[in-house]
Amino acid sequence: MVGVSELDTHPDQNFVKSIKEQMANFTPHKASKTIVDFMATGEVYWNEDCGESRTYLVLEKGSNDLLGFFTLGITSLEWTSVKNSEFWQGLSGKKQKHLSRHMHNKDGFIGVYTIGELARRNDVGRERLPGETLLQEALARILEARQIAGGRFVLVDSRKKLYERLYSKAGFQKVAEKESPNGPDDGIFFISMLPIENLLKSSD
């Protein structure tokens, strides 16, 4: 695995050239205009330079084939959308109080980590790179960031099917819905959230 931020200072520029070519031609397993544009138009580099997000590339050992990638960042979430969700209402009062204790709720919003993109290349099967592996790698980086800067929640928005197949099984809980960034024909996206303390418990 290599971070996009590491490419400019990498000692092997032939390696860097190969990786950047693969990034420009990256086609995700599930059609997504936002992912294609992110990689092909250079948005990924702009986001790195501006500190908007960090992207990590999963490479196959030996061949350095680009199998997939994920992008991490920080965003804000309207706290009332969490409090009004079925997930939150299903928690005990004690658990609600614990998760929101000393919450810094500025203008009704809270800061959260986000997994902005998570994708496997279209010709890479699950046996070669399971979605669970990509997600585990992303969450591991978030845990590292939490050791330095703190943080309580991870947010992700995804297609309903991906939420049901991947994120819900990892402990994410739906808090809202939104229109797909790929257009209305792509269906509804689920916004889901994971308390980071759940990750700490599972790693014990």
From TrEMBL:
GO molecular function: acyltransferase activity
Keywords for this protein: Acyltransferase, Transferase
Highest taxon in the source lineage: Bacteria
Family matches, as PANTHER family: ACETYLTRANSFERASE (PTHR36449:SF1), ACETYLTRANSFERASE-RELATED (PTHR36449)
Protein name: Uncharacterized protein
Species name: Bombiscardovia coagulans
Classification of source organism: Bacteria, Bacillati, Actinomycetota, Actinomycetes, Bifidobacteriales
